[in-house]
């Protein structure tokens, strides 16, 4: 009972923080004509409720795709329809065709915020709790609850979901998939991940680790015996899951092609991750390599869109290849979790049409290994939240950012004593350090160096946060501070990518992993 009491307190605290953040502003509040992501979610409810399925993804007189047209997979549309059905029962004006555009009221805000809370309570939070209880390293009652507390108080996800406005369903389903795989429920895990992918196409960030881990398990079992049977079951499960999600669109090839065109609008170019006319998003402020390089080289003016796509694909593929090969050859649950981080970070840094919110696809897998590398995980999660600062300032979320971020750091300091976990062994770099035989003397001062870099990083992020909030930019350089935030964050992420790949490639022991047979 004690462990459940501690976990109950943890969940109540996490919900309280979410409720407090939800009281504030949201994306695009009172900013016509496009408003923001809050209006996008409301508009999808309007469209899915009032129009037949065959019109959901097509441009018509009743569905102007330039005004927040649906650009997510079918499960998002179905979820919007369910929310719209409930909204219609409460107040038909909320989803009235055409006339509800830009609708804003306190009752409607309460309804929309409640739908996010329900998604959190039904999908994301239970997955986190069960995951923390399943960790062998956190079998102690207190450790499971503190691990859950750190994950549930991660400010980036709270500020985006309950402040900016977004649903945590795809990440929650992906967590359920990881949880299933950790218990060898491979078919259930495949279903859960297919659902996540059919809710948001950005779950492709996690697709290769899932594929490589399960394929590696099949290889280990032998493709002439149990492995072949497992491979056939997995293939059948994936096909059936996709067929079920796409069934209403499967009768018309043009329907399928139109949905795919909406999901992957490659003609927008390397940087255009969002609607052209949205005033709430500026793709030049994403903390990835292309936007950072554009400060020095205007890539859009030098390279054609098709070449941009090919270059982006090549660099992304090469950057995630080592981790994927290692996971396929030596499949382990620990390697799988680290590969989720590494591959998602490669996608964020190098892939096509990246949005600043996509860093959450890296941050959530990092949360899953916070018990293994608490120092580096905490550092990454702080940087990922900092990288969202320009977006949060636009949405009026400075105060929640200023409160939740230091609070998260304090919780991690108290829970894991992270400043004491900076040795090569604590950072999972012991094998790497042993391979550098001639440089071992340098590693003796490694903990002190890494702590100094951490404190320097915190100071830099703190200064840029204060300047961004309090100091007006020069008229000649209006985006100076947002670009500085993006470039500083990008440099951090590049170093983290190197670190995670080193941990993956030099890990030959697969500590604590069950033998796959």
Could you walk me through the main structural features you see in this protein, from its secondary elements to its overall organization?
The protein has about 525 residues and is mostly helical. Among the domains are: about 165-265, no CATH class; about 265-505, no CATH class. It contains 22 helices and no strands. The model is unreliable at about 275-285 (pLDDT under 50). Keywords: Endoplasmic reticulum, Glycosyltransferase, Membrane, Signal, Transferase, Transmembrane, Transmembrane helix. It is an enzyme of class 2 (transferase). It comes from Chaetops frenatus (Rufous rock-jumper).
Mind sketching the topology for me?
Layout (H helix, E strand, L loop, with lengths): L1 H21 L14 H14 L23 H17 L15 H29 L6 H12 L2 H11 L3 H14 L3 H12 L9 H40 L6 H11 L25 H5 L5 H4 L2 H25 L3 H18 L9 H9 L5 H14 L1 H6 L3 H19 L13 H6 L4 H5 L1 H25 L9 H26 L12
What labels describe this entry?
517 residues, 0% strand, mainly alpha
């Amino acid at each position: 009972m004690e462990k459940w009491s501690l976990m109950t307190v943890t969940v109540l605290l996490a919900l309280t923080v979410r409720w407090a953040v939800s009281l504030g502003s949201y994306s695009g509040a009172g900013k016509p004509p496009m408003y923001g992501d809050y209006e996008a979610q409301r508009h999808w409810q309007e469209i899915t409720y009032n129009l037949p399925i065959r019109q959901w993804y097509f441009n018509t007189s009743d569905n102007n795709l330039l005004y927040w047209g649906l650009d997510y997979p079918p499960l998002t549309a179905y979820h919007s329809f369910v929310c719209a059905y409930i909204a219609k029962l409460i107040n038909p004006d909320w989803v009235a065709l055409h006339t509800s555009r830009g609708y804003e009221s306190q009752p409607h805000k309460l309804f929309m915020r409640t739908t996010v809370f329900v998604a959190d309570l039904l999908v994301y939070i239970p997955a986190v709790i069960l995951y923390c209880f399943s960790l062998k390293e956190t079998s102690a009652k207190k450790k499971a609850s503190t691990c859950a507390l750190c994950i549930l108080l991660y400010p980036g996800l709270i500020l985006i979901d309950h402040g900016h406005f977004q649903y945590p369903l795809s990440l929650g389903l992906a967590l359920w998939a990881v949880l299933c795989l950790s218990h060898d429920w491979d078919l259930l895990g495949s279903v859960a991940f297919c659902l996540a992918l059919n809710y948001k196409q950005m779950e492709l960030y996690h697709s290769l680790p899932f594929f490589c881990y399960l394929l590696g398990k099949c290889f280990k079992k032998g493709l002439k015996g149990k492995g072949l049977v497992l491979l056939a079951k997995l293939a059948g499960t994936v096909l059936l899951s996709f067929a079920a999600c796409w069934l209403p669109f499967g009768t018309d090839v043009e329907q399928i092609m139109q949905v795919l065109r909406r999901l992957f609008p490659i003609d927008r170019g390397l940087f255009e991750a969002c609607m052209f006319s949205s005033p709430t998003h500026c793709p030049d402020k994403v903390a990835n390599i292309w936007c950072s390089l554009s400060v020095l080289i205007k890539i859009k003016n030098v390279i054609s869109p098709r070449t941009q796509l090919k270059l982006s694909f090549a660099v992304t593929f090469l950057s995630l290849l080592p981790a994927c090969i290692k996971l396929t050859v030596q499949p382990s649950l620990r390697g799988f979790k680290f590969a989720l981080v590494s591959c998602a970070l490669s996608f964020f840094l190098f892939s096509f049409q990246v949005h600043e919110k996509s860093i959450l696809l890296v941050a959530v897998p990092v949360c899953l290994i916070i018990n293994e590398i608490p120092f580096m995980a905490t550092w990454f999660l702080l940087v990922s939240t900092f990288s969202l600062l320009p977006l949060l300032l636009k949405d009026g979320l400075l105060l929640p950012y200023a409160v939740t971020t230091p609070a998260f750091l304090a919780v991690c300091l108290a829970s894991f004593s992270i400043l004491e976990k900076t040795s090569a062994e604590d950072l999972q770099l012991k094998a790497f350090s042993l391979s550098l035989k001639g440089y071992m003397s340098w590693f003796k001062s490694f903990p002190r160096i890494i702590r100094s870099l951490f404190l320097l990083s915190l100071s830099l992020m703190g200064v840029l946060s204060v300047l961004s909030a309090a100091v007006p930019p020069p008229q000649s350089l209006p985006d100076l501070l947002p670009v500085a935030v993006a470039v500083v964050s990008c440099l951090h992420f590049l170093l983290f990518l190197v670190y995670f790949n080193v941990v993956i490639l030099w890990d030959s022991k697969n500590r604590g992993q069950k033998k796959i047979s």
